[in-house]
From TrEMBL:
This is Large ribosomal subunit protein bL33. It comes from the Bacteria. GO terms for biological process: translation. GO terms for cellular component: cytoplasm; ribonucleoprotein complex; ribosome. It comes from Mesotoga infera. HAMAP family: Ribosomal_bL33. Belongs to the bacterial ribosomal protein bL33 family. Keywords: Ribonucleoprotein, Ribosomal protein. GO terms for molecular function: structural constituent of ribosome. InterPro entries: Ribosomal_bL33, Ribosomal_bL33_sf, Ribosomal_zn-bd. SUPFAM superfamilies: Zn-binding ribosomal proteins.
Length: 55
């Protein structure tokens, strides 16, 4: 069962910086200020690329 998100958590999308495909979804604590940018595998580029958070 899927529960609704409560106030302090935000769903962010991790987007490939090379092709722009949204490959990953993450829950992030709104109060903490950190970036989720990381190197992830992109199925479209077929390699690891830099993924940046977008809304
Ligand atoms: Zn890509």
């Amino acid at each position: 069962m899927a529960k609704k998100t409560k106030g302090n958590k935000v769903l962010v999308t991790l987007k490939c910086s090379e092709c722009g495909t949204r490959n990953y979804y993450r829950f992030k604590n709104r109060q903490k200020k950190y970036k989720l940018d990381s190197s992830k595998y992109c199925p479209k580029c077929r390699k690891h690329t830099e993924h940046k958070e977008s809304k």
